[in-house]
Amino acid sequence: MQDAASRLKDIAEQVLGAPLPVRVRAWDGSEAGPPGTPVLVVRHRRALRRLLWKPGELGLARAWVAGDLDVEGDLYRALDLLAEFIWERGEDAPGLVDSLRDPQVRAAARSLLALAAPFVPPPVPREEMRRHGRLHRHTKGSDRQAVSHHYDVGNDFYALVLGPSMVYSCAYWATPEATLEDAQRDKLELVCRKLGLRPGMRLLDVGCGWGSMAVHAAREHGVRVVGVTLSREQAAYARKRVAEEGLTDRVEIRVQDYRDVRDGPYDAISSIGMAEHVGAERYLEYASDLYRLLAPGGRLLNHQIARRPLRDESAYSVDEFIDAYVFPDGELAPLGTTVSLLERAGFEVRDVEALREHYAHTLRHWVANLEAHWPEGVRLTSPARARIWRLYMAASALAFERNRIGVNQVLAVRTPENGESGLPLRAREWRA
């Protein structure tokens, strides 16, 4: 009789229609597959039950989060080898686990069912976001819940991953050898220059996080800043940081929904890594609200992750792993859609800068920080939460590198009726 690893390898290759690109180690200690490759460790039969009870990426994610499934060796290489079968088979082709629904691989499913016995439903990891239907997405209440799920996991954990800058968005790398701190400072300075900040101006920082942009803008450019976030933990950290910098007279941090900001007009608005939470059905409202809050001639810097467009946009669906464990209700839109909606809201879009490779490099630094302090990261959250963040960040780095997703800074202006945008003729120099 075959050992468990050989049986798993045969089943996987029957489903894939191709040789398994990684080695497999099963719960009985047996191994099978190509030597010298990362090892996919199936620690328990329960991992198979999770895949059978929830075919698709969510079942795979639950097995990873629970520790039933692991990778020994280079995680990036393992994900790279498996990407073709899980994520990159084209719009019309099923992924690795989804193909179990195909009648042609029912025999493989029966073999997997026999190997997974007893066939009882495994418990859902407690880190998974619980929902009661999807009819009320992107209300103020649901957005507060989603933001809390992602950001209120401990400021100390984020400090470990992000480093002292506490900037949770793409850095701007002058050279690959730059430090993460320097690259994040350079990103904040780039945003300030694009916005043309000058002493005495009012800046609204939407989704202000831990206050990095607000502090930098006030300290380096002499502006008055209002930062809004839905995370109470972020706000508490940001307020403490503002006080330590001696900037309480120039920076106000609020726990507030951007839809509730009523004290415009502002001279400039920064939205860095926040718009991904808005949702397609709310995006025009988001853009219109920011347009309303800007003074004529004011600038918006919208820094946002984008996905590649599909032939059939109606077929778009969110990533199950990220939706359940990382960014609940987060949605990515193609860059063209974002630009069109900003224009519909009244903005004149003046510049778009793509930073895709910069985000891949940033994510690899964050993963390295987590891996270098793994026991501490587990202590600050939980083994499952640390595993979620490691997989999410490593997979995201590869997605940026493979051009599955990108990130763009869109500079838009509330151009006054006389058409004077206030931008220099050579805008790329970013002088006010």
Automatic annotation (TrEMBL):
* Matching InterPro entries: CFA/CMAS, CMAS, MeTfrase_dom, SAM-dependent_MTases_sf
Q: What is one process in the GO biological process aspect for this record?
A: lipid biosynthetic process
Q: Where is the Polyketide synthase-like methyltransferase domain?
A: 157-412
GO MF, any single term: methyltransferase activity
**Keyword annotations from UniProtKB, A to Z:** Lipid metabolism, Methyltransferase, S-adenosyl-L-methionine, Transferase
Q: Which Pfam families match?
A: CMAS
Q: CDD domains recorded for this chain?
A: AdoMet_MTases
Concerning its family, UniProt says:
Belongs to the CFA/CMAS family.
Q: Which PANTHER family match?
A: CYCLOPROPANE-FATTY-ACYL-PHOSPHOLIPID SYNTHASE (PTHR43667:SF1)
- Tell me what this protein is called: Cyclopropane-fatty-acyl-phospholipid synthase
